[in-house]
Amino acid sequence: MKVLSKSSEYGLRALLYMVGKDGGQEFVSIREMSEHLGISFHFLTKILQSLTQANLLVSYRGPHGGVAFKVSPAQILLGDVVRVLEGNDFFEKCLLGLPGCGELAPCPMHAFWKEIRGALKDEFENTTIADMGQKALKRNLRLMP
Amino acid sequence: MKVLSKSSEYGLRALLYMVGKDGGQEFVSIREMSEHLGISFHFLTKILQSLTQANLLVSYRGPHGGVAFKVSPAQILLGDVVRVLEGNDFFEKCLLGLPGCGELAPCPMHAFWKEIRGALKDEFENTTIADMGQKALKRNLRLMP
DNA sequence: TTATAATAAGACAAAATAATCTTAAATCTT
DNA sequence: AAGATTTAAGATTATTTTGTCTTATTATAA
User: Cβ contacts (< 8 Å) between A135 and chain B: which residues?
Assistant: First the structure.
């Protein structure tokens, strides 16, 4: 049951790392993150570039460069992140992959999938990176393999 | 939010088609299904082979051959199908993909993911192919694109 | 101003998933 | 017995996702 792509997994873990570091105030080196989190540096760079282009982060080159939050982590929803990294229809897809599935022409799974999918969407649309970061920090939760 | 692989999508759709056809009594041609459902014949064949090898279906070659339920569709859980087609750990995976994530060493998402994942597992472990097929038949629900 | 450190961008490669093709084996019909 | 039909099995190809490598660009610092 793989819900998120590697891009989303890595992107979220990186953002949580950033919050955990200093509350998300200053530039964090991508190299440093890639090493601490056990993620390929170049791959992570591309993921964070997407988040930069989506105006969630800002980046800075040169010594002491890295990425920092452009929008406060208290205003970035988990849903915002996955929508950037996986597309806007992330929470809309049919469980059986049928293109036109919806209230008008539901597939056999539609009724119950709607519930589950809705619950996840709800969580993702009401939880911020800061919320998760707080929790992670307080209880010292894992961010790496 | 793609939860199931194409194999599972196709496999479930095929089983639902079989139930819808005659209540799952007689052999249904894979060719016929592939055409009705808009799925590649050879790919579907391989998927149904897996379900046959897992003893959920039986197959028969030659004219009027095909596949039929070995176990009654009223005794096949949705969970059984996806476990065959995607592996036994289907309902156990960490949202962030961290290998050891669990109660002892939870990731920041663990608490809420456990809930959602549990709800889905619950549905899959308490809903049979026959249940879904009944519903589909009654309301004439879609099985193809 | 030169060397160094860092991200940006895009080409390239590897791996996993999805789809197709070919040949074999089993079964039925005539 | 011969031919047609159908699944079985495995090889091959295509596509998508994931990961790596190289070169450029920007910034700092000596």
Answer: 108, 111
Angle between helices B6-22 and B129-139 (to 10 degrees): 70
Residues of chain A neighbouring B9 (CB-CB closer than 8 A)? 95-97
Is the Cβ pair A99, B12 closer than 8 Å? no
DSSP assignment letter at A67: E
Q: Tell me the shortest Cα–Cα distance from A131 to chain B, in angstroms.
A: 10
In 3D, which of B97, B115, B142 has the Cα closest to residue A115? Answer: B115
CA dihedral A84, A86, A91, A93 (to 10 degrees): 150
Q: A 50-79 residues with CB below 8 A of B?
A: none
Give per-residue pLDDT as tens, A85-109. 999 999 999 999 999 899 999 999 9
Residues A47, A51: Cα–Cα separation, whole Å: 7
The one-letter amino acid at B27:
F
* For helices B6-22 and B30-37, angle between their N-to-C axes, nearest 10 degrees: 110
The alpha-carbon gap from B25 to the nearest alpha carbon of chain A, in Å, equals 20
Distances (CA, A) of B58 to A6, B34, B52, B54: 37, 17, 5, 10
Among A12, A132, A85, which residue's Cα sits nearest to residue B112? A132
Residue A31 contacts strand D, CB under 7 A: no
CA distances from A81 to A7, A15, A105, A122, B123 (A): 10, 9, 30, 14, 28
Taking the C-alpha atoms of B120, A102, A82 and B39 in order, what is their torsion angle to the nearest 10 degrees? 80
Name the residue with the least CA to C1' distance from nucleotide C29: B63
Contacts with B25 (C-beta within 8 Å, 6 or more apart), sequence order: B68
- Over residues A17-29, the pLDDT tens digits come to 999 987 767 899 9
pTM value?
0.95
